[in-house]
Amino acid sequence: MANSTMKSIKHSPGKNEIRKINAITYVNVAVAVIYHQNQYLLGFRDGSQHQGNRYEFVGGKIDGHETAKQALIREVAEETGIDIASNIAVKLGRLHHDYGDKQVCLLVYKVALSTQQYEAHKHRKQGLEGQALTWVDKSKLLAGDYNLPAANKTILEWLRLPAQIAITYPLAHFSDADHSATAWLQYHAAHLAQDTWVYVRPKATNKDTESNVKQLLRLRPDIHVIMPSALTEALTESLNSNEANEIAINCQIVASHLTQTQLMQWSDSHQGKDVSECNSALSYYSSYPLIISCHDAESIYAANKLAHARLEQQLSPIIGIFLSPVLVTKSHPETTPLGWQAWAELTALADMPVIGLGGLSPMMSVQAVQYGGVAVAGIRQFFQ
Ligand SMILES: Nc1nc2c([nH]c(=O)n2[C@H]2C[C@H](O)[C@@H](COP(=O)(O)OP(=O)(O)OP(=O)(O)O)O2)c(=O)[nH]1
Predict the structure, then answer these.
(1) Residue 83 CA to chain centroid, in angstroms?
(2) How many angstroms separate the alpha carbon of residue 61 from the centre of ligand 1?
(3) Quick one: pLDDT at residue 239?
(4) What's the confidence (pLDDT) of residue 162?
(5) Which domains can be identified in the chain, with CATH numbers?
(6) The pTM is what?
(7) Among 17, 28, 51, 159, which is best to mutate for testing ligand 1, by the most ligand atoms less than 8 A from CB?
(8) Cα-to-chain-centroid distance, residue 101
(9) Would you say the CB of residue 102 lies under 6 angstroms from ligand 1?
(10) What pLDDT score does 331 carry?
(11) 200: which residues sit within 8 A by CB, 6+ positions away?
């Protein structure tokens, strides 16, 4: 078992079981969220174990000589007998949690089983180490029906992310219409797929945009929205009434969005500080999870630091980053895209799920997963 002392969490996980950040010793744990369609596999921790008498995702400590993925494959085989060596392990993220008596750094992966693998293991009620195993519905898991260790709260937030996110057209796209705001509203209300996640990006926040967005949410109570932080703040302030439809609107907001510029402003003001000294972890955005735009390694490191600081301060987590541009886009043809390979290298640095953006179609969520991300987002091809 090797030890290493690190000042920051900037770099991708090493092979060491134990790492120190800000003088805290973390035990590295590989965690596998194993699923088939909407069925998710949970184990049950024995009362004698740390965090005992709770459900858990399959996993365990990363040995000194192992990478996180090697540990994942070994732990899943040891605990369940399922061989995931040929499955894609999609990195969700890395999170630190201080239980007081033990500090863990969870490296979390999502692993979809083939139908054949699921059929072979779906009736197994006991793991190879004698622990109970259960397949549970995703909706019940996300609703909090299973008592999991506290660190897993963030994992459940990550699991909510869909494979595709639509982004609204700018108002200027409808400038030929007699009334562009009405045309914007009608188009989006009519063309968003059922239950879709949509990043509402109006480009300006004023009373008209606020009212337009509220109308969209009233017309489409099935959709889930991500909004720029300024708009989230403005809207939530105006949603303080107890009217039922206003409360319903509030529930439709799944995340606030921060630009890379906003992130780097926070980062610059915390330059050289350890995570524990970042007492402002943007707490004014605390009530909603965050999704942040990143375009390079520096901003990803900043997002990692902010994510860690927010977890320490028990603020809602960063549930993803939009990493762009993957390919050439119609709106910014002059910008050189990253390309999938460079996108994958940057994606590996992130401590949270990565969403590809820029010149992509919904079908490309398959490529995003192959290159280490979880989802894709876009405008044109993401509407019906
Ligand atoms: N496996 C697993 N561990 C989790 C989850 N959430 C969470 O906080 N943990 C914590 C609990 C433990 O402190 C640590 C896992 O350590 P462990 O004791 O199970 O590791 P191990 O399987 O190598 O066990 P052992 O050899 O020490 O018995 O991570 C989870 O979903 N799955």
Answers:
(1) 26
(2) 6
(3) 66
(4) 97
(5) 3-154 (3.90.79.10), 164-382 (3.20.20.70)
(6) 0.91
(7) 51
(8) 27
(9) yes
(10) 78
(11) 168, 213, 216, 225, 226, 227, 228, 231
Q: What is the b/e burial string over 267-289, where b = at least 16 CB atoms within 10 angstroms of the residue's CB?
A: beebeeeebeebeebbeebeebb
Regarding the beta carbon of 152 and ligand 1, being less than 6 Å apart is answered: yes
pLDDT under 50: residue ranges of the chain: 1-17
| Runs of H (alpha helix) within the chain | 68-80, 115-121, 138-142, 152-159, 180-191, 207-219, 229-238, 244-252, 260-269, 297-312, 339-347, 365-370
User: Which residues touch 91 (CB under 8 Å, ≥6 apart)?
Assistant: 107, 108, 109, 347, 348, 353, 372
- 352 C-beta closer than 6 A to ligand 1: no
The confidence score (pLDDT) of residue 236 equals 76
Q: Give the pLDDT score at 274.
A: 78
- How far is CA 248 from its chain centroid? 23
Is the ipTM of this structure higher than 0.90?
A: yes
Q: Of 210, 220, 212, 228, whose CA–CA distance to 245 is shortest?
A: 220
Top mutation candidate among 27, 33, 55, 61 for ligand 1, by most atoms within 8 Å of CB: 61
Query: Is residue 108 within 6 Å of ligand 1 at its C-beta?
Result: no
From the CB of 273, is ligand 1 less than 6 Å away?
no
| pLDDT tens per residue across span 306-333 | 999 999 888 999 999 999 999 998 878 8
Give the tens place of pLDDT for each residue, 52-71. Answer: 999 999 999 999 999 999 99
- Which residue minimizes the CA distance to atom 12 of ligand 1? 50
CA dist., res. 25 & res. 202, Å (int): 44
Name residues whose C-beta falls within 8 Å of residue 295's C-beta, 6 or more positions apart in sequence: 260, 323, 324, 325
